[in-house]
Design brief:
By secondary structure, this protein is an all-alpha fold. Helices cover 75% and strands 0% of the residues. α8 packs antiparallel against α9.
């Protein structure tokens, strides 16, 4: 089989489920963005936040402040730098590069989206945390989906036996961070949902790109990452 034929086969093996998720994520984000621009989500958003407001206690305040810290830009930056250093030390350069591209690209996209929509944050009660900048989409929801999603993907590749537990843990953590933004009253529900949608799209694009790059290197005969077997590369 010639190199060209092999390369064509690489693209034919792209996960159909992943592409469908990208399409659904983009559609969901576009639909929510349209409703937000038309200001048709105000009643929905307000009703949910006020319902959450009724559950607030001092103990939950402390818990959700701690949870939301796990989605803070400074913490995620430190996590990415530390993870990239470990990956590079383990000779897993492609994963370190993919993590950097995913994180930096996600931050850039979120910043761009916030400027486009320029949505004000909720001001329904006195907040216990300081926030600034625009509200849509939620940066905590979007970037945590990307960073924890990528790290979860790397762990699943290394520990396939623990796939279910790893995926569940990542999903619960990301969901808790999004919920914390609502509990603290710093985001509208549609901000968080849109953040998840945009984050999922970028996450899948980065993962698919990494898999295609790995397969290309194998077909081209380029040595793979030292700590990754050919089977794991796929």
């Amino acid at each position: 089989m010639g190199l060209k034929t092999k390369l064509l086969s690489i693209f034919s093996r792209i996960r159909i489920v992943g592409l469908l998720q990208v399409g659904l994520g983009m559609s969901a984000f576009a639909w929510i963005a349209k409703q937000v621009l038309r200001q048709e989500t105000t009643a929905f958003d307000t009703a949910i936040l006020m319902a959450i407001r009724q559950t607030q206690t001092l103990r939950l305040d402390r818990a959700f402040v701690a949870v939301t810290f796990l989605g803070e830009p400074e913490f995620l930056l430190a996590l990415c730098v530390g993870s990239a250093a470990i990956l590079l030390r383990s000779k897993r350069r492609s994963e370190a590069t993919a993590l950097a591209i995913a994180a930096v690209g996600g931050v850039g996209l979120n910043y761009w989206f916030k400027h486009i929509f320029s949505r004000d944050r909720p001001a329904l009660w006195d907040r216990i945390v300081d926030v600034g900048f625009y509200s849509f989409p939620s940066g905590h929801a979007m970037i945590s989906t990307i960073v924890y999603g990528m790290l979860g993907y790397f762990m699943v590749k290394r520990f396939p036996r623990w796939r279910g537990l790893i995926v569940l843990s990542a999903v619960l953590l990301i969901a808790a961070i999004g919920l914390s933004r609502l509990y603290l009253g710093v985001h509208w529900p549609t901000d968080v949902i849109a953040g998840y949608s945009a984050g999922l799209v970028w996450l899948i694009v980065c993962i698919l790109s990494l898999e295609i790059w790995r397969e290309y290197r194998l077909v081209a005969g380029v040595p793979h990452d030292r700590s990754v077997s050919p089977e794991q590369q796929l």
